[in-house]
Amino acid sequence: MHRFKTWWIALTALTVFVAFCIGLSVLKRPVTFASLDVVDDSSQAGSSLQETQEMTLLATGDIMYHSTQILKTNGSYDFEDNFKYVSSYIQNADLAVANFESTTTTAYPYSGYPQFNTPKEAVASIKNAGFDVVSTVNNHSLDTGKAGLLGTLQAFQEAGVSTVGTMSSRGDGIVWKEVNGITIAFLAYSYGFNGLLERLDEDERWMVNALDEVKIEADIRLTKKQGADFTVVFAHWGQEYRTEPTIDQEELAHKMVNWGANVVLGSHPHVIERSEMIKVEDEQRYIIYSLGNFISDQRLESVNDINTERGVMVELTLRKTGSVNTVSAVTLIPTWVYKYSCPGRYCYQVLPALAAAEGSLDLNLSESLLKRIRSAYTETVKRIKGTS
Q1: Strands 182-190, 230-236: parallel, antiparallel or unpaired by DSSP?
Q2: 202-237 tens-digit pLDDT
Q3: Can you list the domains of the chain with their CATH numbers?
Q4: 103-116 residue pLDDT tens
Q5: Do 173 and 185 form a contact (C-beta atoms < 8 A)?
Q6: Cβ of 283: how many Cβ atoms within 10 Å?
Q7: If you write DSSP's letter for every residue of 328-358 in order, what string do you get?
Q8: Do the beta carbons of residue 306 and residue 327 sit within 8 Å?
Q9: pTM (2 decimals)?
Q10: DSSP 3-state assignment of 220?
């Protein structure tokens, strides 16, 4: 077993670009955690002769659609504006991933909480925003039964977005991607399914990946055996609205890293939880316990929790040098969900908090909203650093 040590993301290369002056924030650029190269003196000379490949992986949190988000405009559903202000960040990454916390099927009426069913037009907007892979396994995966599970997979397949965590045919459940000579394997698991597992026959329950340690360990080790340079694990876990990970989350995350996971992406709490950088031999591996909500109707006014309207895009630089595969840098792009009135419905847009706070978006935001966005930016950075 590897002996590993928890490293806070290296502060020597960190600048938090936030200053306050009479309540105004001066925000310079997204916060970048540039991690230290982890090589010892004896291997450094040899590694300099080896070719290095790099790629960027951008991860966001929960993509959810409550009932107020799925109202028609002029007789049709339109979600294209949801990601208007963040699509450039998403598309600029080599790979972009998220958690899709809904289903889509015409076998059931469209609805929000407690049983989510979203028009497939939302899937098209996720594709157009630039996402490449979505986790489809979470506690809402069976909200519309087997029909919804299969309909969701079909909608994403038709859109050209890979899915992980739920399956329509038996297999190992691993999703493979190759970028810039780097091979990435994706896995995904959920703690449960809101008591709806019986909507699948017993011999069909392989269609959803449960958060089972024995299976997770076997799957991670299989990805390494099959040649993964980086193994990325989506974990749907923890407690809703809790801003600190539970002991169970921490213990399982560290186990997954020790089994070979390079990146662990948490979801389910609907609020952001802190991150860690773990050193395993010559490699750095990254955990974020919860990415929070990316888009939803959860916010201060609807659930009395301002943290639910705050999200983040985490961009990881993955570096491969010989047999050493490390997370070499982490860039945080805090986000905030802007909800406003449109003709006959509400509109929702994910805003990059920095750009919104600086007034560089084509939006006329009130000072009270700007103050809320500045707070979202600074609090998100502090929470992910583990200093709030």
Answers
A1: parallel
A2: 999 999 999 999 999 999 999 999 999 999 999 999
A3: 4-385 (3.60.21.10)
A4: 999 999 999 999 99
A5: no
A6: 20
A7: EEEEEEEEEEEEEEETTEEEEEEEEHHHHHH
A8: no
A9: 0.89
A10: helix
